[in-house]
Amino acid sequence: MIPKINRENSYRITIEEVTSGQDTGKSLSFEFQDREDLFKAVENIKKGSGLEAPLATRVAVALRLYRPCDDAKPQASTIFGFYASL
């Protein structure tokens, strides 16, 4: 039997389009839960990767968002097939 992941950490991610004018760009937002502390993961990647801080932040967040979860287990071929079709 696979143990259930304890999800103690809840986060909200908001992405906003940056525009050159006064117009508000598009945005999207979603919430997720994770067993790992996202802020600690970002700091660890910043310290240990040798990447510049903005790139290290993007990498750490991407890795935590892409990690397998027990809610939905998409097949890698489905995910990569989707991106290949873009």
Index terms:
41% helix; 3 helices; 86 residues
- Strand proportion, as a percent range, falls in 15-25%
- Number of E-state strands: 2
Give the rounded overall mean pLDDT: 78
Report on the biggest sheet. Answer: 2 strands, antiparallel
User: What percent of residues adopt helix (DSSP H or I)?
Assistant: 40-55%
- What structural class should be given to the helix and strand makeup? alpha+beta
SSE topology string = EEHHH
Shape: flat
Radius of gyration: 16 Å
**Poorly predicted residue ranges:** none
What is the rounded distance between the termini? 38 Å
Number of DSSP helical runs:
3
- Order of neighbouring strands in the sheet with most strands: 1-2
How does this model look, in words?
This protein is α+β, with helices and mostly antiparallel strands. 41% of the residues lie in helices and 19% in strands. It is built from three helices and two strands. Helix 1 (38-49) packs across helix 2. The longest helix has 14 residues, at 53-66. The model has no long low-confidence stretch (mean pLDDT 78).
SSE layout and pairings?
Layout: E1 9-16, E2 27-34, H1 38-49, H2 53-66, H3 76-84
Antiparallel strand pairs: 1-2
Helix pairs in contact: 1-2
Quick summary:
The chain has 86 residues and is α+β, with helices and mostly antiparallel strands. It is built from three helices and two strands; from the N terminus they run ββααα.
